[in-house]
Amino acid sequence: MKKNLTVRFIQSIRPPKEGVAVYWDTAISSFGLHVSRSGKMTWKLMYRVNGRLKNKKIGTYPMVSLADARHEANQILLEASEGEDRFADTSTAVENPSFD
Questions:
Q1: Are 2 and 26 spatial neighbours (Cβ–Cβ below 8 Å)?
Q2: Which of 48, 54, 87, 99 has the fewest CB within 10 Å, making it most exposed?
Q3: What is the chain's pLDDT, residue by residue, as a tens digit (100 residues)?
């Protein structure tokens, strides 16, 4: 469900009786707060990089504030719009490695 995420609104959220409740931000449409049955609140962002859909956990509330989570989401979206993905797998597989 879409909501104007504010600190006051977030503090008023009650955990769902089952499953996960998702509150999508009206300011950043692909940014939201996932609330579990246990009450854990996790910031999430869905975005595309070079056509590939990504789902990134930004952090948990209140350890990561609304302002910090929005800032991080905006940074990730800006980088993605330029074709960059700081979370891309940067490992390189080496076939037949040799040790001298």
A1: yes
A2: 99
A3: 999 999 999 999 999 999 999 999 999 989 999 999 999 999 999 999 888 899 999 999 999 999 999 999 999 999 998 888 877 764 344 444 444 4
3-state SS, residue 87? coil
What DSSP state is assigned to residue 37?
A: T
CATH class of the domain whose range is 2-81 = alpha beta
Joined tokens for residue 94: 């080496």
CA gap 29, 36 in Å, rounded? 20
Give 24's contacts (C-beta < 8 A, 6+ positions apart): 1, 2, 3, 30, 31, 32
Burial class (CB within 10 angstroms; exposed 0-12, middle 13-18, buried 19+) of 46: middle
